[in-house]
Amino acid sequence: MPPVIVYHYSFSPYARRILWYLRLRGIPYLTCAQPPTLPRPDVRLLGLKHRRIPIVAIGGDVYLDTRLILRKLARLPPSPSPAMQHPPSGTQAAGIERLLSAWSTDGGLFSRAMQLLPGADLPLLKNKAFQRDRADFVGHSTNAAGAAALRPEAMAELRDAFALLESTFFADGRDWILGGQGPTTADIEAVWLFHWLSGLKGALDPATISPALFPSVFAWVDRFQRQLSTAKTEAGTVSGEEARDRILGQASQTKDEVEVDANEMLVKFYGLQQGSVVEVWPVDSGSAHVDVGRLLGLDSLEIVFETDAGVRVHAPRHGFRQRPVISSNL
Ligand SMILES: N[C@@H](CCC(=O)N[C@@H](CS)C(=O)NCC(=O)O)C(=O)O
Questions:
Q1: Residue span of the signal peptide, if any (predicted)?
Q2: Which of 99, 122, 173, 241 has its CA 20 to 30 A from that of 164?
Q3: CA distances from 83 to 87, 98, 185, 227, 329 (A)
Q4: What are the pLDDT digits (tens) for 19-29?
Q5: Does the CB atom of residue 12 touch ligand 1 within 6 A?
Q6: Which domains does the chain have, with CATH numbers?
Q7: Taking a C-beta distance cutoff of 8 angstroms, is the pair 104, 110 a contact?
Q8: Mutate to test the pocket of ligand 1, among 6, 44, 52, 69 (most ligand atoms within 8 A of CB)
């Protein structure tokens, strides 16, 4: 089993998706604790400017974006895993899982959920340095009055989301999104925002969203939490230097797995080749943080590049942009 290292801070809901998956599958891991705001020198040690959390190393490979990370973790033994199964590819269930992922991340639910964070109960939100940091993350600044004005609209969007789950998936009394005896990755794709908000004092307006109004959704969140409480895995901690050394000390398990696909439109458009110096960045958030590296592979699903620290990094094509760097001293 290649060692898994998760760079994260404890209140990151995206990081929890990964930590829950590891725990429910019983995969041992190490965490490299990160501050909630920049700078993050441990990430810079990997040669990365990427600001989003989590970042996950599996052996000698580093992965960005939880959607790619979950796909890669699925390949760790035992595969197929007895707990926390992925719906088999080519099935309607796999389609549902993908759509739930698009709903929560690309569909804007996460951004709406952030607008519900309760300023009165979370002192960090009032901290000026934190506000500046998050303005860099989302690409614009919001003052307290502006944030308060967004709450009613965000609450209505989240009510729609609770209502959708209550009145469709859970309308037949099932325990899990895809039915069956236990949670699957479709539950992870769906539950994380509901789990996050329902656990945050002051986030939800009880007249709009409450266990009385959406009993099945709240019961599902509790059921998921009970599974987490009984699941066990080994987890340790590691410093940034140690994490970097461990990653560099592991042979890549994916060498030659992703090649520069000459038929990819982007490859043809820019005339990319293995070794081309490329810039890579996410388009939806944290976009001001552009990484540069030597291209190792690019296909329909991911781009692989090597940073100046010698680290092999994978980013998904979906939600990321890539282009060649005309002049660079790499
Ligand atoms: N699509 C990304 C989103 C990750 C994301 O937005 N993470 C948040 C933390 S929950 C973040 O990076 N916030 C800014 C920061 O921590 O610097 C993923 O799936 O990994």
A1: none
A2: 122
A3: 12, 19, 10, 11, 47
A4: 999 999 999 99
A5: yes
A6: 4-80+235-324 (3.40.30.110), 92-230 (1.20.1050.10)
A7: yes
A8: 52
